[in-house]
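User: Continuing from earlier, I have the next pair ready.

Assistant: Great, send them over.

User: Here they are, in order.

Assistant: Folding the first of the pair now:
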Amino acid sequence: MKLRILLLVAACAFSLRAQNIENFPWWNQPVRDQIGLTSEQSEKIRQIVRAHRNKLLDARNNTLKAEGDLQDVMNGPQVDPAQAKAVIDRLAAARAESSRVFLEMSVELRSVLTLDQWRQLVRRWDQEHRAKAKQGEALP
């Protein structure tokens, strides 16, 4: 179950370029320990993630369904612009809802952190991003 949530969060996180751009579950070890989360903060974070789990899964599933429908339209022998527009509108709405739910959860998670913890987390995201970018540069 935790893996599904983490994958869902990772899939939605693309919309948060200024934040968790490397899509890692910062509330787990070792990051939790590095930024000094208390046991109370950890419990509150678990409650927030649990409270948003079904909304996140529903939003992600709606997005996947709309993406599949658009793929069907695009791969058909003829593309009907009116049919495509309806699917595009549904996909855009599903992506917006997915982002909204994830961002609401993110704000709630941020509210649990102190400013110093938040700054440490942002530095950690930046380090992760630079490390991944460096690895990408080394690839052929």
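And the other member of the pair:
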Amino acid sequence: MSKFANLRKPDTHAHEILEMMIRSGRTYSNESLAAEIVEAFGEDSTFHTCSGHGLDPYDIVQHLWGKGKFTGNPEAFVFLPASRCNH
């Protein structure tokens, strides 16, 4: 094992965040979702999608908005299941 292995950040696909949102059944704000992501995955976690990599918990929320994954507004939204990609 590399002596640098402990410096690597976990990298998680955004699908894990969307599944977390479905399981919770909650309505989120940008701030509450970012806080829950930090709680669930850790402050140092990074996230990726098919079109974005190395996103922190706050950037992934904005990225998912840009991809049309949520319905509502930044203060009250849920995951839009119809926007789920099938891969």
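Worth noting for the second one:
The longest strand covers residues 70-73. DSSP finds three helices and four strands in the chain.
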